[in-house]
Write the structure tokens for this entry.
Amino acid sequence: MSLEALDAVPWDRLESALPRHPVEEVPRALRRLALAGGAATEEYCYPLYSCLIAGNGRVPSAATAALPFVVELAADPEAGARVDLVGLLVAFAHATRTARPDLVDAGWPAAWRRHRGAVLALLADPDPDVRREAIPLADGVVPLLERWRAETDPAVRLPVLLRLGRVAAEAAQADARSVEEVRAVLDGVLRDGEPVMKVAAVIAWERLDPQEPVRWIDLLVATLSDLAVRPRFEEIW
């Protein structure tokens, strides 16, 4: 991450999410993360969450300025605390979806579009923990289906499956073709998947049809009461 670019940002003209967390904490935290490299830990990200994600429905100007540095650090395989940085991007995306438009910094939408490619690339990161954390960044059914087809790690495939059910339900009216693809995926898992993935498929189906779990009650009871399957739940869920 370029410290020169970080220093060039006019941080004193920007606002954090809450007055009690001064904006100067943002470049200080980003600098500390960059200099620590792989030794950075979750605690290094706390000031960023405090300054940029306040849970008060705002996306402040400091978030717009910090976004390229957060993306660059999250994508750097040599950086530490990458999962927590991806979590910050997920929090940004959630805040953007739920905030009133007048509480979102005017420059934020363009900044997010500019970095969308790098953000979506985290879904295919070599680190499975990063991929798993990044799943909510998939902005629609299509990138989730792409991830499902490419993913090989069961501990990542499972939350992708759960997310597919939710996103397909939200897109049912606007993207019927993709929703049918999701239905086919869920049917395939229920037909051929391992027991833990079948439970996830039932939960995902419930988003599309609340009666679906009732139809699979025998499967759910058999799987959830099978002591031999418990270690697999602990391993991948």
